[in-house]
Model the fold of this input.
Amino acid sequence: MKSKLTFFIVILSILAVSIVAIASEQQLKGAHKEMELACADCHGTDAPVKRAKTSVCKTCHEDHEGEEKVYLNNGAEVEVNVHKSHQGELRCTLCHNIHKPSKLYCNQDGCHAFDDDMNVK
Done:
């Protein structure tokens, strides 16, 4: 019984060290990197295991109402406010990524085909 407990503790320790190592490999980009933010600033811990919540993003970034702009969607001009989704309120990290390149969520899964990235940063 004692050897099983020791084995379990060793496995948990290895897992904890691995999570910290993976988190330290995640590099910030852009203004977040320039401000030298720590993991805990957004995730509440130095060893995050899930994404930060939209409410945390909004503590530093004002709630973007956005504005309608003209974009090309499959070559046709359309007026769109990307922060007023027809799917309701979406989490910030669907488009805006801090550890990897950002992607325009609207273009994923064949929903839309906007011809540019709409300046997603």
Residues 54-121 form one domain. The radius of gyration is 20 Å. The chain has a mean pLDDT of 81. The CA atoms of residues 95 and 102 lie 6 Å apart.
